[in-house]
């Protein structure tokens, strides 16, 4: 497996892209509420990205038709923005990428819409916790399985199912580069080195881990219709841990 290590300059460009992604998320946090459509969220995200000299990475990627993935409730990833109106008690996972001078930042977050159930609150809290557990292992000298295992351990501790068909990835000039990052142990002993840039993205559910793709060929849902959460940051590996690029 060939994993490209980025120069300091390349990481600087990725951090610029990442800041704009974080800016989109800070905007989403403000405007996600009952009564808005997912298309409205998409339009705002597009504008924020364009206003900040970036391009929306997802738009046109393998034919994807939008700036954000908007995945509501049992939708796990790759949902389309639409005229769907968010309602009280929904959860929405928003995944977004921005490209700055050819370099990509990629980050996802799940937001509560209005007042959500205690079960959903806990799901969001623990999925975020599993992300940061994984990131804490993203340092040079560790192996990739340390990252995957840390995510897995949090999910197991709280008895949530891990979506196994999807995971994190290397990121740089392409949104998806080597290595693939599972959210559970696979004995991947890839040695982490400074300059590797990796997106970690656990997806956990309140029910089972089986998923299916809807007839639109994109939207991934849980088969048992249980709600799913998704948290992701793009990071650079350093000697002391993850340097999170997708933050302000
Ligand atoms: Mg990703
Ligand atoms: Mg993403």
Structural summary, described in words:
With 248 residues, the protein is of the alpha+beta class. 51% of the residues are buried. It has one domain: Creatine Amidinohydrolase (Alpha-Beta Complex). The radius of gyration is 17 Å and the shape is globular. The protein has a five-stranded antiparallel beta sheet with strand order 8-7-9-14-15, sandwiched between helices. The longest helix is centred in the first third of the chain and has 24 residues. Strand 11 and strand 12 form a beta hairpin. 28% of the residues lie in helices and 26% in strands. The chain is built from four helices and 15 strands. The structure holds magnesium ion (MG) (2 copies).
Largest beta sheet, briefly? 5 strands, antiparallel
Shape, please? globular
| Global mean pLDDT | 97
Number of helices: 4
Based on the model shown, name its key terms.
248 residues; alpha+beta; Creatine Amidinohydrolase; five-stranded antiparallel sheet; four-stranded antiparallel sheet; 15 strands; globular; binds magnesium ion
């Amino acid at each position: 497996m060939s994993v490209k290590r980025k120069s300091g300059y390349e990481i600087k460009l990725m951090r610029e892209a990442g800041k704009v992604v974080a800016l989109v998320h800070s905007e989403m946090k403000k405007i996600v509420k009952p009564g808005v459509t997912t298309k409205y969220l998409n339009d705002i995200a597009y504008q924020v990205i364009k206003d900040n000299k970036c391009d929306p990475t997802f738009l046109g990627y393998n034919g994807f038709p939008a700036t954000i993935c908007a995945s509501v409730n049992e939708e796990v990833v790759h949902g389309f923005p639409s005229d769907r109106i968010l309602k009280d008690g929904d959860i929405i996972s928003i995944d977004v990428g921005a490209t700055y001078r050819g370099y990509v930042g990629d980050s996802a977050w799940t937001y509560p819409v209005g007042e959500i159930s205690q079960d959903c609150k806990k799901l969001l809290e623990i999925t975020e916790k599993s992300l940061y557990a994984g990131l804490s292992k993203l340092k040079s000298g560790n192996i990739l399985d340390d990252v995957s295992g840390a995510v897995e351990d949090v999910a197991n501790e709280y008895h949530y199912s891990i979506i196994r068909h999807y995971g994190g990835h290397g990121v740089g000039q392409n949104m998806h580069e080597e290595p693939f990052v599972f959210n559970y142990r696979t004995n991947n002993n890839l040695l982490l080195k400074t300059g590797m840039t990796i997106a970690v993205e656990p997806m956990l559910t309140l029910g089972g881990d089986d998923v299916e793709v809807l007839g639109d060929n994109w939207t991934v849902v849980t088969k048992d219709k249980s709600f799913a959460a998704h948290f992701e940051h793009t990071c650079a590996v350093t000697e002391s841990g993850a340097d999170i690029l997708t933050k302000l």
